[in-house]
Amino acid sequence: xxxxxxxxxxxxxxxxxxxxxxxxxxxxxxxxxxxxxxxxxxxxxxxxxxxxxxxxxxxxxxxxxxxxxxxxxxxxxxxxxxxxxxxxxxxxxxxxxxxxxxxxxxxxxxxxxxxxxxxxxxxxxxxxxxxxxxxxxxxxxxxxxxxxxxxxxxxxxxxxxxxxxxxxxxxxxxxxxxxxxxxxxxxxxxxxxxxxxxxxxxxxxxxxxxxxxxxxxxxxxxxxxxxxxxxxxxxxxxxxxxxxxxxxxxxxxxxxxxxxxxxxxxxxxxxxxxxxxxxxxxxxxxxxxxxx
Length: 292
Fold this sequence. Notes:
By secondary structure, the chain is α+β, with helices and mostly antiparallel strands. It has helices spanning 71-78, 85-103, 115-124, 129-135, 194-202, 210-219, 225-234, 286-291; strands at 15-26, 29-37, 48-49, 52-54, 146-152, 164-172, 186-192, 238-240, 243-247, 250-254, 273-277, 280-283. It has a single domain (15-237), classed as Alpha-Beta Complex (Nucleoside Triphosphate Pyrophosphohydrolase).
C-alpha cells in the first residue's frame, strides 16, 4: 500500500498521545506487538503500528490514590521540565487504556487475567477506563510502563495531516492474557521480532510508518525483555523531532545527528534519515542500514 505524502502546513499544536511497545520473550528472542490499522482508518490506514492513541480528558482525572506509584514519579520518569503532573499521569493512563482498547491487554496484571472481562464490562457501560479499574479494587499499574522516547510531529507532517506529541513506552506483556485486537480499529495483532518486522517491511509484506521503522531499529539489537528494560531505565526518554525537506520533489525525513538536522547529537545508532522512494520511506543503505 502506498503511503500518501502530505505537504500542507499544520498550524494547530501537536496533540498529546501515548504509544506502547509491548514486548515479550519468544522462542527466538525478543518479540514486539504490532496491530494493523483498518485500511479506511483516518490515520495510517493499513499500516502496522504499536498500540496507542491520543490523550483523553478522562485520562487526566484519575485520583492519585488510584495509581500504583506516586504521581510525582510519573512526571519524573518522562523527564520533561515543562510538563504538568496531570498530563504526565494522563499519558501513563492513556498508554494503559489504549493497549486495553486496541489489544485487550491489561498491562501490569500478570496474575489477574480475569481483570480484562471485568474492566471491559464496566467500560462498555460508559465508565471511564481509569475509574473502572479503580472501582474494581485495582490500582492502575502505571509503574509497568517505562518511557522510551518522545516523538513530536513537525509542522509539515509527512504521513498524516495531524500533529502529535507522542510518548513511547515499553511494557512487558502479561503472560496469562491473550491478545484480542479491536475489530473496529484493526484487522490483526501480531507478535514478531523487531528484526523480522523490518525484514517483512523491506520485503513488502507489511507497511510501517517512520516512527515504527526507527523504533524497530532501536529494538533490533536487543535480545530480551531484560535488555529492553535495562536500556529504558539507563537513560532519559530520547526526544525525536523529525525535520522533513524535499529534494527534487522527493521527501526526506532527517533525525537528530543527521547533517541536515538542527540537532547535531545522534539519538541512536543506525540511519539518521529516511527517503521516500518505492512508495515508502527507506533509509540510505537499505535493509542493512535498518538492521545495523
